[in-house]
C-alpha cells in the first residue's frame, strides 16, 4: 500500500524535469509561481479557469497569493462543460483588455485547452477555426504569444504537456483540433495539493481517460519506441495509483494525508505521460468516446471507460502480442491478452464507473448517430486494426448489451 512507498510529494520535496516541457512537481510547488513570473518581468497575468474551480477556496487562495506578490492579476472563469468557441472568444477579449503577458491556464482539460488557444488568438488574426489542424490555408502562427503556464487540477487529459486544443463549434458541436508546437505551455506546475478536493466520480472518470490515452498510444500503429516506453510505465503507475487515489477521494474528501497527496501526485504524472505518449496516436476507443460526447453529452472520461471492454477485446484479436506486453508490465497472472482485459473490467468496477451505455442512459436508438460521428473521427485511423462502420456498430452494441449482466 501507499505507506511503504517514498512520499515523494510531501511538502518540501520538489522535482523539476523538462519532458516535453518544463515541469515543476511537488506538494505546494505552486508557491514558486509568483517568483518565476516576476523574474521574467511578466506583471500582467490572466488566470483562465472553469466556473467550478473558480468557486473553490483553494482557487481563491491561489489567486490572492499571486495578487499579494504584487502581480496585476485578472481572472477569466467563463468555461464549463466541453470547451466551445464562444468561450475562447470571450477569454481572448479579456486577455486583450488586460494586456496579458502571462496566461495561467488552471483546472481540468477544458480550462487548459481554452487557455492555450486564448494565448494563440490574442495577437493572431482571423477566426479560431481558421487554425484547424490540417487546414492548408491556415494563417501562420508567427505572432507574439503570452507566456503560458499550465496547472492541471485533474489527472486526465494531460493537456498541460500537449501541443493541441480541442474546441467545439457552439451550434454544430463539431470538434475542431487546433495544433501548433507553440501551444505547449512553457511551464507546468504539477501540484497535487490542487487536486485533493476532486470528487470521487471525477477522479475515476479523469483517471480512466488517462489510462485510455496510455493504452491506445501503446497500441497505436506506427514506430515510436519512446512513446511505447512512456505508455507502459504510465500504465503501471495508473494500475498502482488510480485505485488508491479513488479510495482516498472517497474516504478523505479532500483532506491532505501524505498517502492521498502521493497518490494524486503519481496520477498527475501518469496523465502527463498519457499525453506525451499519444503524440504517437490514439484509436477506436477515443473515436467512440468523442461520438458519445457529441451525441449523448457524456463526460469524455466516462465515455472512454464504458467503451474500453469492447474496444480492447476487438483490438486484442488483432495485436495479441501488444496485450501480452501490457499484461507482463502489470505482472498479471498468465500474462495473456485475456488477463489484461480482465484487469480492465476489474478496475472499472473498483472505480464504480458506469459499466455500460445503459448505465449512462444511452439506448440503442442512438447507435446510428453514434456510428456516423465515430466514423468521421480523427482518432481511429491510428488504431492497430482498421475499423469499419460495421465494427463501430458492433462495438456500440456490445457496450449496450452488457448492461443486462449487471447485478
Ligand atoms: Zn481522452
Describe the structure.
The protein has 407 residues and is of the alpha/beta class. The chain is built from 14 helices and 9 strands. The chain folds into 2 domains: 29-190, Rossmann fold (3-Layer(aba) Sandwich), CATH 3.40.50; 199-405, Dehydroquinate synthase-like - alpha domain (Dehydroquinate synthase-like, alpha domain, Up-down Bundle), CATH 1.20.1090.10. A 7-stranded mixed sheet has the order 1-2-9-6-5-3-4, sandwiched between helices. It has a two-stranded antiparallel ribbon with strand order 7-8. 50% of the residues are buried. It binds zinc ion. Zinc ion binds at residues 157, 209, 212-213, 286, 300, 304.
Summarize the structure.
The protein is α/β, with parallel strands linked by helices.
Topology (SSEs and partners):
Elements: E1 15-18, E2 22-25, H1 33-39, E3 44-48, H2 51-54, H3 57-68, E4 72-76, H4 85-98, E5 102-107, H5 109-121, E6 147-152, E7 164-168, E8 175-179, E9 187-190, H6 200-219, H7 225-252, H8 258-277, H9 284-296, H10 300-318, H11 320-329, H12 337-350, H13 367-376, H14 389-401
Helix pairs in contact: 4-5, 6-7, 6-8, 6-10, 7-8, 9-10, 9-13, 10-11, 10-12, 10-14, 11-12, 13-14
Bound molecules: zinc ion.
pLDDT < 50 stretches: 403-407
Which distinct ligands sit in these coordinates?
zinc ion
By secondary-structure content and strand pairing, the structural class works out as alpha/beta
Which range best describes the helical content: under 10%, 10-25%, 25-40%, 40-55%, 55-70% or over 70%?
40-55%
Assigned CATH architecture of the largest domain: Up-down Bundle
- Helix tally equals 14
Q: CATH H-level name of the largest domain... which superfamily? A: Dehydroquinate synthase-like - alpha domain
Tally the beta strands.
9
Q: What is the name of the CATH class of the largest domain? A: Mainly Alpha
User: What gap, in angstroms, lies between the N and C termini?
Assistant: 29 Å
Globally, the shape reads globular
Gyration radius over CA: 20 Å
The main pleated sheet reads as: 7 strands, mixed
Amino acid at each position: 500500500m501507499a505507506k511503504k512507498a517514498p512520499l515523494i510529494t510531501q511538502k518540501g520535496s520538489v522535482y523539476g524535469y523538462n519532458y516535453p516541457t518544463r515541469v515543476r512537481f511537488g506538494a505546494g510547488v505552486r508557491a514558486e509561481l509568483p517568483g518565476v513570473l516576476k523574474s521574467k518581468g511578466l506583471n500582467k497575468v490572466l488566470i483562465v479557469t472553469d466556473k467550478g474551480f473558480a468557486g473553490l477556496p483553494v482557487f481563491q487562495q491561489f489567486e490572492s497569493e499571486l495578487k499579494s506578490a504584487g502581480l496585476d492579476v485578472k481572472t477569466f472563469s467563463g468555461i464549463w462543460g466541453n470547451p466551445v468557441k464562444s468561450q475562447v472568444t470571450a477569454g481572448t477579449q479579456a486577455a486583450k483588455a488586460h494586456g496579458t503577458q502571462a496566461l495561467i491556464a488552471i483546472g481540468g482539460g477544458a480550462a487548459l485547452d481554452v487557455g492555450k488557444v486564448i494565448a494563440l488568438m490574442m495577437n493572431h488574426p482571423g477566426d479560431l477555426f481558421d487554425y484547424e489542424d490540417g487546414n492548408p490555408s491556415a494563417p501562420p502562427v508567427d505572432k507574439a504569444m503570452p507566456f503560458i503556464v499550465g496547472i492541471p487540477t485533474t489527472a486526465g487529459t494531460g493537456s498541460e504537456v500537449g501541443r493541441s486544443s480541442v474546441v467545439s463549434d457552439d451550434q454544430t458541436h463539431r470538434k475542431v483540433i487546433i495544433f501548433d508546437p507553440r501551444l505547449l505551455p512553457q511551464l507546468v506546475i504539477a501540484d497535487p495539493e490542487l487536486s485533493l478536493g476532486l470528487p470521487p466520480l471525477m477522479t475515476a472518470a479523469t483517471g480512466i481517460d488517462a489510462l485510455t490515452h496510455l493504452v491506445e498510444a501503446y497500441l497505436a500503429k506506427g514506430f515510436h519506441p519512446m512513446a511505447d516506453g512512456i505508455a507502459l510505465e504510465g500504465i503501471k503507475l495508473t494500475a498502482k495509483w488510480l485505485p488508491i487515489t479513488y479510495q482516498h477521494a472517497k474516504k478523505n474528501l479532500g483532506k491532505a494525508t501524505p498517502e492521498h497527496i502521493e497518490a494524486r501526485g503519481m496520477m498527475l504524472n501518469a496523465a502527463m505521460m498519457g499525453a506525451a505518449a499519444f503524440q504517437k496516436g490514439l484509436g477506436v476507443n477515443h473515436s467512440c468516446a468523442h461520438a458519445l460526447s457529441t451525441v449523448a453529452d457524456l463526460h469524455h472520461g466516462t465515455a472512454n471507460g464504458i467503451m474500453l471492454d469492447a474496444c480492447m477485446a476487438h483490438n486484442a484479436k488483432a495485436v495479441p502480442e501488444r496485450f501480452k506486453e501490457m499484461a507482463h508490465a502489470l505482472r498479471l497472472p498468465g500474462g495473456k491478452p485475456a488477463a489484461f482485459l480482465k484487469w480492465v473490467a476489474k478496475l472499472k468496477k473498483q472505480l464504480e464507473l458506469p459499466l455500460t451505455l445503459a448505465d449512462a442512459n444511452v439506448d440503442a436508438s442512438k447507435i446510428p448517430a453514434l456510428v456516423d460521428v465515430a466514423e468521421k473521427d480523427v482518432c481511429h485511423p491510428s488504431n492497430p486494426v482498421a475499423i469499419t462502420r460495421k465494427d463501430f456498430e458492433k462495438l456500440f452494441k456490445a457496450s449496450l448489451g452488457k448492461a443486462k449482466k449487471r447485478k
